[in-house]
Automatic annotation (TrEMBL):
Protein name: Sporulation peptidase YabG
Disordered as annotated region, ranges: 77-101
Pfam family, one: Peptidase_U57
InterPro entries: Peptidase_U57
Native organism: Paenibacillus cremeus
Length: 295
């Protein structure tokens, strides 16, 4: 058994597939979930190996149920921007209004920081499929706050996703899950959210989606997040934060994001994600000009 192997824990009935990130001297493995954003550790004797698939592929060949819904949303926006379905009035038909000009669409731009490179690759591929403009960076959770000082003014996003791996410590210093010290990475996510809010205080000008499995939901919201995990301290799917970000990106700026609707689409639902009323980031513009290359 070595670093990079895929394993399950016997003591938990093999319910979650992990990748071994590191093996410590005490023969304890540091584990990162393959499909779930969970950080854990376990003795090597408690681990069983599973088929060694590419973690990027083992996240599944089928997308979560919300992907098709988001595709319909982005296609509908594209239809509006091209004027699809509009019939111009005839010369003798003055009762019909003039056809509206074709729009260009401008979805919100996402800055996605991820503590897992495999998850980041999967997310960036899906952002592309959904036509969501996004820049993604693999940054360890401990370095996310520092990275945002540079990346926020550089990328000027409408939405920032701060995610990776987290979990409640088994041997908590106080035994109290209301304390940030009881979590593996929640304090790092909180620090990053605070940096984002120092950059932009208005929660409707910059939407912040933060957290991972079992993260301290209340602390993330108090730090300034619009959406966060995990209200019931449950595990969340690797793509759940992306689902929220994509929905915000395609919700018109004059509308509030339907919190129950978007979180209902995610794998973990309202136990895994929550948030506050926030405006969308999608804009339309005119005119739509087709540029041709000079000959």
């Amino acid at each position: 058994m070595k670093q990079g192997d895929l394993v399950t824990r016997r003591s938990y009935g093999g319910d979650v597939v992990f990748k071994i990130q590191d093996i410590q001297q005490q023969q304890v493995a540091v584990l990162r979930g393959v499909e779930l954003r969970l950080l854990a550790d376990a003795p090597l004797l408690d681990l069983d190996t599973v088929p060694q698939l590419d973690p990027f592929q083992s996240m599944g060949t089928t997308h979560p149920k919300w992907v098709e819904s988001m595709r319909r949303t982005t296609l509908a926006a594209q239809d509006v921007s091209t004027g699809a379905g509009e019939t111009p009035p005839t010369a003798n038909d003055k009762s019909k209004p003039k056809p509206r000009p074709a729009y260009f669409d401008l979805p919100g731009k996402v800055l996605h920081l991820d503590g897992d490179p495999a998850y980041l690759r999967k997310c960036m591929s899906l952002y592309g499929e959904l036509r969501v403009p996004a820049e993604g960076y693999y940054v360890s959770e401990a370095n996310m706050a520092e990275a945002l000082y540079r990346l926020l003014p550089q990328t000027r996003p409408d939405i920032v996703v701060i995610t990776g791996h987290d979990g409640i410590l088994k041997n908590r210093p106080t035994g109290d899950i209301t304390q940030l010290s009881s979590y593996k990475n929640s304090h790092n996510f909180v620090d990053a959210v605070r940096v984002a809010r120092q950059y932009e205080k208005n929660r409707d000008n910059l939407t912040v989606v933060a957290g991972a499995c079992q993260s301290h939901f209340e602390a993330l919201l108090a730090a300034g997040a619009n959406f966060a995990s995990s209200p019931a301290r449950v595990l969340i799917h690797a793509l759940d934060p992306l689902c929220v970000a994509a929905k915000v990106a395609y919700t018109p700026i004059k509308d509030t994001v339907d919190i129950v609707d978007v979180i209902g689409l995610t794998h973990s639902g309202l136990e895994g994600l929550g948030g506050i009323e926030s405006l969308g980031s999608y804009r339309k513009g005119v005119p739509k000009i087709q540029y041709s290359t000079p000959k």
